[in-house]
Amino acid sequence: MKYFLNRLEPKLNESIMSFIYRTTLANYQNFNTIFDDLSSIVFVYNCNYLDKDAYWYDQFSKVVTLLRRECDDLLLNKFDEYFSQDLLFGINHDRICYLKKHTKYCPECLNEDFYHRLYWDVSFVTVCTEHKIRLLETCPRCSKKIRLARLMQNQCTCGYIYESAILPKTNLTDNEVQAQNILQGLLLNQKNHCSIKNGTKLDKKEYLRLFFLFCHLIDNVKVGNVYQEEGTIQKFNIGMKNKEPKNIEMMSLVTTFVHLLITNPEEYLSNVINEINNQASFKKETRKLKMRSFNLIKTHEKGQLYNTIYTDYLIHLKDKYVNTLKNVEIKPEEKEYLTLEEVTKVYKIPLRRIKFLIDKGRLKLIKTNTSTGQVRLIEKSSIVTYLNSLKYEINKIDTSKLLGLQPERVIDMVERGILKAIHGPKTDGFWSWIFDEREVEKLLRKSLKNAQLIESPTEDMIHFHKANFLLRHLEVDTIDLFIRIVKGDFTAFVIKKKSNFSDVYLSKAEIENLKKQFEETRIAEKGYTLKEFGVLFNTDARKVKSWVVSGKIKSINQMKNPNGTTTYFIQKEYVENLVRIFREYPSHNLKKQLEELYRERNI
To answer: Do 14 and 74 touch, CB atoms closer than 8 A?
Structure first.
């Protein structure tokens, strides 16, 4: 072979095969014949990546020497230092990162200057950033993959002219365009760095290192579980681990998502980690390999942001025992969900007490069923709420002192639904009554909000407890009286600088009126008591009771008391009838007259 006489200069970002093709034309030679017996190779391979182990390497290298110039910048090999740092995928990086048997192109670029751009053969390059269109990887007419040798001849086997392609307007997303601008800008040395969300700047080598690590992390991950993007792609396919087509749509999605993970990891990184840790999605060994890759990411010189997000993810993890994970150093105090043992150790709460608080709903237990068993964790916020409430918890005696009522009345208020207990024998079975001091004070303020402040009580006022005593026989207990004060049925007075019912006074007149109303109602419904009957007729109540028991007085009502005794009432009509009879027999000795009346009339 002879050197080419007409020497050309490579064009911007031109590939070696494009340069050889243009040089052969300039020297009036046949592109196929210069490769001798390897002419078929150029129609199968792009040959823009030189693999020393390839059988055609020596023959191709001889052709390159005919160009009489250094051609390293025209080869994909120049990107190896950024892509070949780890054999993460179990296969050579060049099979992942470069196109070797077909190519893609921008028809607008070909129309402007017909030559093949080297970076078109980088798998992750999917968009022409100058013309804002997605690159073509198949013939618009026959849909065959585009061979580089065919592209340089500008004609598909079906006869279609490649540069004549008119692409429909592609709706590129902002994220897709931004990802391609950064990736291509760094690859082609048009940009010096890429900034991530926390302000950290990544140079070309750092960005592409993280890019490749993240590619391994998301490979074979379900798209819908980590990235809500409309489309038909089910799983990311980078290392050929699934049957999804590894086409330009796939690689565009991969590039876009990986760029987002690098620059804005707060939005999606937790989703990816969670999916990787999902035992139903990946086998144990696969999870280990992926977490090994992620460990390289978060321990990267500029991986502080990723480590922070991972730590936050672990802190909020509620379906795994974080302390069992490898390479994890999270203190129990930092976690949002803790084991029962951690709660005991950190907050000094006995295990028996913890179980009781869980049973009573004071502590929130999160249960998650996994393939290895059930995970039981306690929500930290419920622990904090419980501990904060402890300083406000008071027992029955303190509550009664705060209200100024007897302890028994406090329980009555609970049973009547006026006061809520945190714990108690009749609420949740707890041996002691426990109340929230804030709720008790709130109830006290509500009950006395309309009370009038006084310096000291006057003669027309009666103390709350005394009024309560006077009304008890009328079936108006302490709680009834309390409710009437809250409703405003009584005018309440409170001594200044006092705040509970031990210093509350009521109007005597209002109490007497209420007493009278109850007596009138009771007489109308049940009748007179034996004592009232005796007073009315100047007769001893015991004598009246003997008449009732002996049956001499028949018009009676009876009421069984809780203690087993019986209270008797003489009906109102009967008493009024007696009064009319006594008017016919005026006498100073009413008692004797009444006895004669009973003997004569047996009434």
So the answer is: yes
